[in-house]
Amino acid sequence: EAQVTQNPRYLITVTGKKLTVTCSQNMNHEYMSWYRQDPGLGLRQIYYSMNVEVTDKGDVPEGYKVSRKEKRNFPLILESPSPNQTSLYFCASSPLGYGYTFGSGTRLTVV
Amino acid sequence: GNSVTQMEGPVTLSEEAFLTINCTYTATGYPSLFWYVQYPGEGLQLLLKATKADDKGSNKGFEATYRKETTSFHLEKGSVQVSDSAVYFCALSDPGAGSYQLTFGKGTKLSVIP
């Protein structure tokens, strides 16, 4: 089944404790992206990747890192999480522009 | 830059009522337009799309027509069901201008009551 898999689905952590949210797709898509969803703000792009070793900032990249060492994986790294990063996060992939597939989401709470 | 504006919610309708959710966009090129749906506790699913002017996207009884002259992509359904209760997002991408980023509206929450 074609899908984007994110882990974990739920995460509660403390301020400053490094964490990684994993994202993997099995559709051989070139393009992968991370979004955060916040009430009243909709979905905003954090980082994206056009292909292996090619990443770039989206609209709200501060406090986040990404890497793309393999085509299928695109982890989101929070080196020192803060409470304002409490949000619902989505990973998405696309064969360059059409038909984005989204993961089920990761609900992160930073206390 | 690109932007999407959709009508504020929430929208509450009775079952079998007609639904319209307005969406207008601003883009520098010739974007592709999408409607995504998010059911409670789930991720986003593509509902329908249109890639050029006058195209009509349709799925599950929902329709939207790409209107370049009014820069709009309004979502319609003739008879809503309780199972249509969800948040609906209008979005665009502009790959012709080199941007594969999906730009979203803020979402419209629809509640359908029996």
Sequence of secondary-structure elements of chain B:
EEEEEEEEEEEE
Task: State the oligomer.
Answer: heterodimer
CA radius of gyration of chain A is 13 Å
Poorly predicted ranges of chain B (pLDDT <50, ≥5 residues)? none
**Percent of residues in beta strands of chain B:** over 45%
How far apart lie the N and C ends of chain A? 36 Å
| Largest interface summary | A-B, 25 and 20 residues
The structure class of chain A reads mainly beta
Helix content of chain B: under 10%
Give me the strand/helix succession of chain A: EEEEEEEEEEE
Instruction: Please give the radius of gyration of chain B in angstroms.
Output: 14 Å
Describe the biggest sheet of chain A? 7 strands, mixed
Q: Could you tell me the number of beta strands of chain B?
A: 12
* Biggest β-sheet description of chain B: 6 strands, mixed
Large-scale geometry of chain B: globular
Count of beta strands of chain A: 11
Gap between N and C termini of chain B: 41 Å
Give a summary of the structure in a few sentences.
The complex is a heterodimer of chains A (111) and B (114). Chain A has 111 residues and is mostly beta strands. Chain A is built from no helices and 11 strands.
Summarize the structure in words.
The complex is a heterodimer of chains A (111) and B (114). Chain A is mainly beta. In chain A, 0% of the residues lie in helices and 51% in strands. In chain A, the strands form 2 sheets. In chain A, strands 2, 4, 5, 6, 9, 10 and 11 form a 7-stranded mixed beta sheet that branches. Chain A has a 4-stranded antiparallel beta sheet with strand order 1-3-8-7, with no helix packed on it. Chain B has strands at 3-6, 11-14, 19-21, 23-26, 32-38, 44-50, 56-59, 62-65, 75-77, 86-94, 99-104, 108-113. In chain B, the strands form 3 sheets. In chain B, strands 2, 5, 6, 10, 11 and 12 form a 6-stranded mixed beta sheet that branches. Chain B has a 4-stranded antiparallel beta sheet with strand order 3-9-8-7, with no helix packed on it. In chain B, strands 1-4 form a two-stranded antiparallel ribbon. Chain B starts with a strand and ends with a strand. The interface between A and B is medium-sized, with 25 and 20 residues.
